[in-house]
Design brief:
Layout lengths: L15 H31 L6 H14 L1 H18 L11 H59 L1 E7 L5 E3 L1 H7 L9 H7 L2 H17 L2 E8 L6 E11 L5 E10 L1 H45 L6 H32 L5 E4 H11 L1 H7 L2 E4 L4 E4 L1 H17 L7 E9 L2 E8 L31 H11 L4 E5 L5 E8 L6 H7 L1
Parallel strand pairs: 7-9
Antiparallel strand pairs: 1-2, 1-5, 3-4, 4-5, 6-8, 9-10, 10-12, 11-12
């Protein structure tokens, strides 16, 4: 490979460094010569006074303009020239008495001036580099702000920030655009509340106060905008602490969720129509099915012993099918009623609801020899009749799907964050966890009717009720080792005094 000569490398002009050094030496020589010439002109007036003054000035000029490469030579040349021309004895390099002291002082001052000039030059370089970095950071910040603004506009959201100590508010430009606010409007929580729909203002104020007072999170949905142009928004945020851990600001985003709300409303109406249809169909099917069953039973009684064995068997199949169909229709009606009738939530003792459920299951519990126990259960804000269905279905399932040993069922509840987590544990046959999601579907069964009776809607009803209460349901199980069903219910706030001891 052919090598380029050193002087031909890009960015290094031939002899550049050498010329730079000669220029600095030339600057030192010219500055010292100028100082010597001026001093010679002033010599008749100054005589032996202040021989180094002009040479010190020459050193300063060289140090400031040429750095150490010019300043140090200026000290050396200035000292030599001044010694020869102006120190006694003149025209001699001999140094004695006050002249020697002056020469030493001149050299020390020159070195100090060079050091200061060097430090000043380095500081200027660092300042220039810092300024360049600051300009680049400002450019990048402007680019980031522009991209963030573009992303906010595309996502239909806006950013906001509130200082907790001062209540000072900041809005992003996209936040103003989201609400249609003029640029000149003052950013404040008062102006924000003013554009919120009057029906939702108290809810928004309460959410903000909780976030300010509890130093926690903000999450609230509300309507805002001019009359006839109301839109749905969702505000979400959280507090940020200072170095000592004290919350000092609340920041977050606001999203336009109007389209989502319209879709939810349309879906809810569709579900309600579907539930009404299913309820009507199931209700209308019960009567003709009851007629078919009644006449089949009448036919079987009147012709007992008169028909051949096959005909008796066929009538048995018909009656069994009618009974199963009746169970399916009743299950569909029970499932439909969950959505057909609105929930009526009140503060209720879960222990009292469980006691009612056990009264309804008294015959099943006694015949199976089941043992049902529970820990202390809390008070919850729920529909008592719906919660009764949940307990009743989970306990009856635990007893139904039992092994040879007598069933054992245990209920408990633990507080986890903002939820109460209820559990129903049994010692039954267990479930393959690969089927865990399937069992919560309507009419989903893992066993045949000959093994276990039922329509397959009990767990679907449990899931529907729990979700309508804002919770979820899940299980842990292993075949042959029993199952534990869990469901959550919001703990709620403002627990009545008479329920407080129970809720803790």
């Amino acid at each position: 490979m052919m090598r380029l000569p050193h002087s031909s490398l890009p960015g290094r002009p031939p002899g550049g460094l050498a010329r730079l050094g000669l220029n600095k030496l030339l600057l030192a020589a010219v500055a010292v010569a100028a100082a010597a010439g001026i001093r010679l002109l002033l010599d008749p007036i100054l005589g032996s006074l202040a021989p180094f003054m002009l040479f010190e000035l020459a050193v300063m000029v060289c140090a400031l303009w040429g750095g150490l490469q010019a300043g140090i030579p200026a000290v050396v040349l200035g000292g030599v020239v001044c010694d020869y021309l102006f120190l006694e004895p003149r025209h001699s390099f001999a140094i004695s008495g006050h002249s020697g002291v002056g020469w030493v002082v001149f050299s020390c001052v020159g070195l100090v001036v060079n050091l200061l000039a060097y430090r000043l030059a380095e500081a200027e370089k660092q300042t220039a580099a810092a300024n360049r970095a600051l300009r680049q950071a400002n450019n990048e910040l402007r680019d980031s702000e522009a991209m963030l603004e573009l992303a906010q506009t595309a996502a239909g959201c806006g950013l906001w920030e509130v200082s907790l100590p001062t209540r000072e508010v900041r809005w992003s430009r996209s936040f103003r655009q989201l609400y249609g606010l003029p640029d000149g409007m003052e950013a404040s929580d008062r102006n924000w509340i003013a554009i919120v729909d009057p029906e939702d203002r108290e809810k928004v104020r309460a959410a903000l106060d909780r976030a300010f007072e509890e130093k926690g999170r903000l999450s609230v949905e509300f309507r805002a905008g001019e009359a006839g142009k109301r839109r749905w928004f969702a505000a979400m945020g959280r507090t940020f602490p200072d170095p000592e851990g004290r919350p000092v600001r609340l920041a977050g985003i606001t999203l336009d969720i109007t389209a989502r709300k319209h879709m939810e409303d349309a879906l809810e109406r569709s579900n309600e129509d579907l539930q009404r249809f299913a309820y009507a169909i199931a209700h209308d099917l019960k009567e003709p099915l009851r007629t078919v069953g009644s006449y089949c039973q009448l036919l079987a009684r009147r012709n007992r012993g008169k028909l051949d064995p096959d005909s008796d068997e066929f009538l048995g199949f018909i009656l069994n099918g009618v009974e199963r169909m009746h169970g399916l229709i009743q299950g569909l009606l029970d499932y439909s009623r969950i959505s057909y009738r609105p929930d009526e939530k009140v503060w209720v003792s879960a222990a009292a609801v469980l006691e009612r459920a056990l009264q309804h299951l008294d015959v099943l519990v006694r015949e199976s020899g089941a043992k049902v126990t529970c820990d202390t259960l809390p008070a919850v804000n729920a529909d008592p009749d719906r919660l009764l269905q949940v307990f009743q279905n989970l306990i009856s399932n635990a007893i139904k799907y039992r092994r040879a040993a007598p069933p054992e069922v245990h209920l408990s509840a633990k507080r986890r964050g903002e939820d109460w987590i209820f559990s129903v544990r049994d010692n039954g046959i267990g479930i393959d966890m690969r089927q865990a999601d399937r069992i919560f579907g309507v009419f989903q069964r893992l066993h045949s009717h000959s093994e276990y009776e039922g329509a397959g809607v009990g767990l679907a009803i449990v899931k529907r009720i729990v979700e309508r209460h804002g919770g979820r349901v899940w299980l842990e199980s292993e075949p042959g080792k029993g199952s534990t069903f869990y469901f959550s219910i919001r703990a709620g706030e403002d627990v009545p005094a008479e329920m407080l001891a129970i809720a803790r």
